[in-house]
TrEMBL record:
Coiled-coil intervals, chain numbering: none
GO molecular function: phosphorelay sensor kinase activity
Species of the source: Niallia alba
Record's protein name: Sporulation protein
Domain of life: Bacteria
Keywords for this protein: Kinase, Phosphoprotein, Transferase
Amino acid sequence: MNKDWNTIEFLRHVRHDWLNKIQLIKGNLDLNKPDRVKEIINEIITETKQEAKLSNLDIPQFATKLLIANWENYYFRLEYEVLAEEKCQVTEDEVLSEWTTLFFQMLNQYIKPFADNHLFISIHSMVEGIRLYIDFNGILLDRETMSQFLQQQFSKQLTLKNIEISEEELVFEVWMNREQTGK
């Protein structure tokens, strides 16, 4: 899951994704389903706008982690939404990215493979830092271990709050405070 992505591999996946989208449009045009074509185009526009918002947050390691997550061999599908566009210039990108990588690995290890596992991350960038709302729906096999992982202190800047966990849902918030300058 921690593959080093070079430019060629990255572009190959992007090209493959775009080819799939074009084939979806073409197939629906061939089936004379213009309404479905419009829906697909609107979905592509929405997804592309979200990718742009994520890329513009100025946290490249974290953004890359989310952008390539569905190309990794995780047993969950990731969706995200950027709700505020305040740049994260002094947020510790590396800490957030490392925690996200560990979380993805832990989640992947303790969910049922090939089930309908869906992870949604809502990203709120604010002056004081960044807040993530994380919502997993699927089949969680080991709630106790996941709960222990989420209660560990990873960094002074990173705090998890409002953790709710059940067999089929995991919801919590991640608060990442901006670095204090002058330390």
